[in-house]
Specification:
heterotrimer; A alpha+beta (274); B alpha+beta (796); C alpha+beta (152); A: 274 residues; alpha+beta; Uridine Diphospho-n-acetylenolpyruvylglucosamine Reductase, domain 2; Uridine Diphospho-n-acetylenolpyruvylglucosamine Reductase, domain 3; Enolase-like, domain 1; 4-stranded antiparallel β-sheet; 14 strands; C: 152 residues; Ubiquitin-like (UB roll); DNA polymerase, domain 1; 2 domains; 5-stranded mixed β-sheet; 32% helix
């Protein structure tokens, strides 16, 4: 299976990439690692007429200490997130979750920015950064703007990015020693989660987000509110699916997904609180 | 490590490394789609998106106008190319219904994936792009997905048959019928269970690939195919296309796994042959994985009704089996015979006096089923082993103990079963006890007592399956009694070349089993030469014209034994030459380590190397003896071979999520003498994981409209290393008395033992919750549902 | 589009269609057919090769993305006629049967050991999560990788 024919252009810098995507309009797509886009193109579920390859924009691959947060360049690969000493120290939940994306071959190619921009509710890192209260930086022809993760996911594979904007940086608050847990429930390790939970709990409160529990990654705000109000972990976990609208598919019914979310949130919070 | 050391006689039974490996490990090996065929046209198929539809029209004009397209045909355009419909070689009953089946459907499509048109183009992408341009008008008809619905004839799929029922086949033993009813009526314990053998996708890692290369003049044609059965394919394609058989050569480059799915004669093979002949150019086809999911046969697909009667002591007195088999839309090569391969095994390893088996098979609007690893025997073993566990639970005794009470005893072999078959040898108690020891059966039971307390959410379970496998298919006369259209023999030629190098020609067709290594070991042992001096030729009908190929764990107990017998004939002839030249009596010669010695005269010797050269020059041979040293054997085994064993699986079930974790898997198998334990172990490993995958992961999921919902490896859950356990193997050795090597075959044993052992363990873990059965695959969702159901039932 | 790719140490200048997948480039343009295709959903790993020293699924990389890169395929693993230690380990531990997944397994396994030279059995199993095999049940594949790591 090969993709439908397309025009291929290569950007040398973020500015050039944004200019190219503006030039070619809505039929154009950014190509980073390609591990979300190329599988769709091979199955002809996506057929962009132009690919703007941003894979060589070297200045977007970095992980930097920025004081209260860690700044991650959009082209940083999952493998680099997973093995980053800086992230392991300050945002261990994210480094750990990155090690669960796809398989090693996928993590060698797939990028942090690519998976966030693709906005797949079944992917691990959109929900993880959502739980962590991350901010995404979008850059367009008129400069950059910040988008809170909580405002970013707008529908199935739909984000707040404008067509001529490029995701350039992910800013993840330091966890400051908060407890954390990542629960990925699937049948084969390489698969997407049937249900996943990214959770942290510490002095600053808690954050819980769900993978594959709706058309977008889901922030389980009721759980955090209950915890803040003094509820026990198991009571709070009962609220896990309050914000979710889980689908039924080959792997799980809506009812089973809802149940799993409660069990996994409880286990995640138990681990994060330990 | 290399294997160049000069091995004397003791080669058999060693862990010799495989000679096949260097080419496979370095990328040198060529699979069919690796072949460079300049000028070849690529073939692609338009496939029905409907499970059941009348084909109203096929408009090829846009496809024909597309770049690179050379030709395009609908089914009716190709009618003149077929001398016969696609073959089904196993008409199990005289009145079996078998709809005419052509490589490209005419008039009606009967499953999603049924070919409705074909394109030839100068490249694969051009052919596939053009397929998208073919405009087929369909009149959709209702799909038939459910077996019981199919049997009702609510919707008849093949109008000309008037029914969806293909056949009913009974194995009713004379005098048993009344006795069986009586046995059930008077039984202290009766088990009645319904099991579903879900459809499975074989998923050999190499999708199918075909290339047909015609000779420009003379009419000969060579078919390269990723097949397990080059010989059967040659005969069947000659018949189907009406080509003289001697003009068809079938050869297989490296074959990337089969598991039964390449034991067939497929539409694409016939189309490549027919269109290569028509267009006088090579024609090739490479299957894509999502295409493979619908266009290559599926496995299993049965509903089993299993009944056992037992006396108060737990002695099983009768077994009654009713099978409803899913044939899919058409009968492929051996589709209807698959349930029959299990028909004799529903008594398992037990001494059960009364037996009643009947199978009814129906058409559905789904991909045809056919042989898949074990073919009928895993299904049978699953039913009896699950039912025995149920009986033990009903009686409140340990399932291991119940099995011991019912095993056929060692001293009863050879054992004539009530089905009339003779089990060659066995020692079930020894295998079960060895497995129990390796699994720490008593220890797990003790842990279970402390772990599985009320309220516990991680429950421990242990499950067992003891199996008997009927393999080495098979005595030709027995196959005749089952209406199988071929024999069960295998051919071998052993040829000693003038320089004492040896060519072995076999009719087996390996696709991962390591026959080149194993067959060279047999010959090295027999003739006292180094395995490195032996070449094994196979899988090319021009080089090995006689053979019945590789399936059903038959290659060693039939093909390997044929090779050993051919070696004996070579030795007999060599002895005549040695006796002549040494001026000794044949009876006074001993053959050992590759040399003939006159008994009592250690100085009077003649090595095989010298005899080979004498046979070649023919300067000084005994009167009447033909030159050259070679022998041919066609061996028809006197019996099936009967491998057996016990597998024990230990699991934990997370009752909150339904997740099953395999803690330990022990397989104790007995395949008689082992030619190469390294290869035996590999076969068991692979088989067990395939069976475990049926138990926990795999299922072809269809919607009500007959669409396969998981037609890719992203959705059809072939497990990876991360998802399965390591395995603990043990062996007992009970040689087969029916062949000189004492071998039985090991290709399917793992798959046969695994599914029931795993599910028995899962049910055992959950039995305290009142759960007595568990559908396959026991996915977390399925297990969780069962727990919910049991708990809701209990609360009512 | 013109690309320059170093494959198994040899620089290849080629003109490819942008949609050409890396696996088709090495198989069809360069004739290196040791890299196999087993699926069309990036699931099976049969097509794994090394791109700049790391295992990737070459069915999910465009040839143009490999422009300027170093590619190693299974054909490039042996040196001076000697199989790579991982290839030898697979042979000695019967880590292959039909051989179709094997090149991808070897490439994934060597990449794994580069990142984690002394893995546990569990780490080997997880490290090979992206490679499917239907013959071996993985037991001897895992054994092969552990043996290679141990220098056996």
């Amino acid at each position: 299976m090969i993709p439908a024919a397309f025009e291929y252009v290569r950007a040398g810098s973020a500015a050039e990439a944004i200019s190219l995507i503006g030039e070619h309009g809505e039929e154009a797509k950014f190509l980073a690692g390609g591990h979300s886009l190329l599988p769709l193109m091979k199955l002809r579920l996506a057929s962009p007429s132009v690919l703007v390859d941003i894979g060589r924009v070297g200045d977007l691959s970095y992980i930097r200490d920025a004081g209260d947060h860690i700044a991650i360049g959009a082209l940083t690969r999952h493998m680099d997130v997973e093995t980053s000493a800086l992230l392991q120290e300050h945002v261990p939940l994210l480094a750990h979750a990155a090690g669960h994306v796809g398989d090693p071959q996928v993590r060698h190619r797939g990028t942090m920015g690519g998976t966030i921009a693709h906005a797949d509710p079944a992917s691990d890192l959109p929900a993880t950064t959502l739980a962590l209260g991350a901010t995404y930086v979008a850059t367009g022809p008129n400069g950059s703007r910040e988008i809170a993760a909580a405002d970013f996911y707008q529908g199935f594979l739909e984000s707040a990015l404008e067509p001529d904007e490029m995701l350039t940086e992910i800013r993840v608050p330091k966890m400051n020693g908060a407890g954390w847990s990542f629960q990925k429930f699937n049948r084969r390790a390489q698969d997407w989660a049937i249900v996943g939970v990214a959770a942290w709990r510490g002095a600053a409160g808690s954050g819980v987000a769900l993978v594959n529990m709706g058309s977008t990654p889901v922030l389980a705000t009721s759980v955090s509110a209950a915890l803040a109000g003094g509820a026990s972990v198991s009571d709070a976990a009962q609220l896990a699916a309050s914000e979710a609208e889980p689908q039924s598919d080959l792997n799980a019914s809506t009812e089973y997904r809802t149940h799993l979310a409660k069990v996994l949130v409880r286990r995640a919070l138990e681990q994060a609180s330990a | 490590m290399t294997v160049t050391d000069d091995r004397p006689a003791a080669v058999l039974g060693t862990r010799m490394l495989r000679r096949e490996d260097p080419a496979l490990l370095t990328g040198e090996a060529k699979y069919t789609n690796d072949l460079a065929l300049p000028g070849a046209l690529s073939l692609a198929l338009a496939r029905s998106p409907y499970a059941h539809a009348r084909i109203l029209s096929v408009d090829l004009s846009a496809a024909l106008a597309a770049p690179g397209v050379v030709a395009a045909y609908a089914g009716a355009d190709l009618s003149s190319l077929w001398a016969a419909p696609m073959p089904c070689a196993w008409p199990v009953t005289a009145d079996m219904k078998n709809p005419a089946h052509y490589p490209v459907a005419i008039g009606k499509a009967a499953y999603v994936g049924d070919a409705v048109a074909v394109v030839l183009a100068t490249s694969e992408s051009a052919a596939r792009d053009a397929v998208e341009l073919i405009d087929v008008q369909y009149e959709p008809l209702p799909a038939v997905v459910d077996l019981e619905d199919a049997l009702s004839d609510r919707v008849v799929i093949h109008d000309e048959l008037g029914t969806n029922k293909s056949y009913t086949w009974d194995l009713k033993i004379e005098d048993h019928e009344g006795a069986i009813d009586e046995a059930f009526a008077s039984a202290a314990h009766v088990v009645k269970e319904r099991y579903v053998q879900q459809r499975l996708l074989p998923m050999a890692m190499e999708p199918r690939a075909v290339a047909a290369v015609p000779q420009p003049f003379g009419g000969d044609i060579t078919l390269y195919s990723s097949t397990q059965v080059p010989h059967i394919l040659k005969i069947m394609s000659a018949i189907t296309l009406g080509i003289p058989e001697h003009q068809v050569r079938v050869t297989t480059p490296a074959v990337g796994g089969g598991f039964g799915s390449k034991l067939n004669v497929y539409a694409e093979e016939l189309l490549c042959l027919a269109l290569a002949r028509k267009h006088k150019v090579p024609v090739r086809w490479n299957e894509e994985r999502t295409e493979n999911a619908v266009a290559t046969i599926h496995g299993r697909g049965q509903i089993q009704h299993m009944e056992l009667a037992a006396d108060a002591a737990g002695k099983i007195t009768a077994v009654r089996v009713r099978i409803l088999g899913d044939m899919g839309a058409y009968l492929q090569l051996v589709t209807p015979g698959i349930p029959l391969l299990g028909a004799f095994l529903y008594a398992g390893v037990y001494d059960i006096p009364l037996y009643d088996f009947s199978c009814t098979s129906v058409f559905t609007t789904l991909t045809p089923t056919d042989a898949y690893r074990g073919a009928g025997r895993p299904e049978a073993t699953y039913a009896i082993e699950r039912a025995v566990d149920t009986l033990a639970r009903q009686m409140g005794i340990d399932p291991m103990e119940l099995r011991k009470r019912n095993f056929i005893k060692k001293e009863q072999f050879p054992y004539t079963a009530m089905t009339g078959l003779v089990y060659d040898s066995g020692n079930h108690l020894a295998a079960a006890e060895k497995a129990a020891g390796l699994a720490d059966y008593e220890g797990v039971r003790a842990r279970q007592a402390t772990q599985n307390v009320p309220g516990a959410t991680t429950l421990l379970g242990i499950g067992q399956a003891s199996y008997f496998e009927m393999c080495g298919l098979a005595p030709s006369r027995v196959l005749a009694s089952l209406n199988y259209s071929a024999g069960g023999w295998e051919a071998a030629t052993v040829r000693v070349l003038p320089t004492n190098k040896i060519q072995v020609v076999t009719g087996t067709a390996p696709h991962g089993q390591g026959h080149e290594t194993s067959w060279s070991m047999i010959v090295a042992d027999k003739l006292g030469v180094s395995p490195d001096d032996i070449d094994v030729l196979h899988s090319d009908t021009a080089i090995a014209p006689l053979g019945l190929d590789t399936y059903g764990s038959r290659s060693l107990p039939v093909g390997g034994v044929a090779i050993a017998m051919a070696c004996d004939k070579v030795i007999d002839k060599a002895k005549k030459i040695a006796a002549h030249q040494l001026e000794a009596n044949e009876d006074d010669l001993e053959f050992s380590g590759g040399t003939f010695t006159v008994k009592g005269s250690p100085g009077k010797t003649m090595p095989l190397a010298a005899i080979a050269f004498e046979a070649f020059t023919a300067h000084n041979l005994p009167d009447g003896l033909e030159p050259n040293l070679e022998a041919h054997v066609t061996y028809d085994p006197p019996n099936f071979s009967w491998p057996f064993g016990t597998h024990i699986c230990t699991v934990e079930v997370d009752t909150e999520t339904g997740q099953v974790t395999v803690l330990q898997y022990v397989a104790v198998d007995d395949c008689g003498n082992q030619v190469n334990p390294l290869i035996v172990e590999g076969q068991v490993h692979g088989g067990v994981i395939q069976g475990l995958a049926q138990a926990l992961f795999e299922e072809a999921v269809y919607d009500d409209d007959g669409n396969l919902k998981n037609a890719s490896l992203a959705e059809y859950l072939v497990p990876a290393a991360s998802d399965v356990p390591g395995l603990t193997l043990g062996f007992t050795v009970t040689p087969s008395p029916t062949n000189q090597l004492g071998v039985k075959g090991i290709g399917e044993a793992g798959t046969i033992g695994a599914a029931p052992a795993v599910i028995n363990a899962v049910v055992d873990a959950l039995s305290s919750l009142g759960i007595t059965n568990m559908p396959m695959p026991a996915s977390p969702h399925t297990v969780w549902n069962a727990i919910q159901h049991a708990q809701n039932g209990a609360s009512k | 589009m013109k690309i320059s790719v170093t494959v198994n140490g040899t620089v290849h200048e080629s003109d490819v269609e942008p949609r050409t997948l890396l696996v088709h480039y090495v198989r069809e343009t360069l004739g290196l057919t040791g890299t196999n295709v087993g699926c069309d959903t990036s699931s099976c790993g049969a097509c794994s090769l090394h791109l700049d020293g790391e295992a990737v699924k070459s069915c999910t990389v465009l040839a143009v993305q490999a422009d300027g890169a170093q590619v190693t395929t299974i054909e490039g693993m042996a040196t001076d006629g000697e199989m790579h230690p991982m290839q030898k380990a697979f042979m000695e531990n019967h880590g292959l049967q039909c051989g179709y997944c094997t090149p991808g397994m070897v490439m994934a396994a060597t990449s794994l050991l580069k990142e984690n030279p002394n893995p546990t059995e569990a780490e080997v199993r997880l490290g090979l999560e992206g490679n499917l095999c239907r013959c071996t049940g993985y037991h001897n594949i895992v054994k092969s990788v552990l043996a290679c790591a141990a220098g056996e």
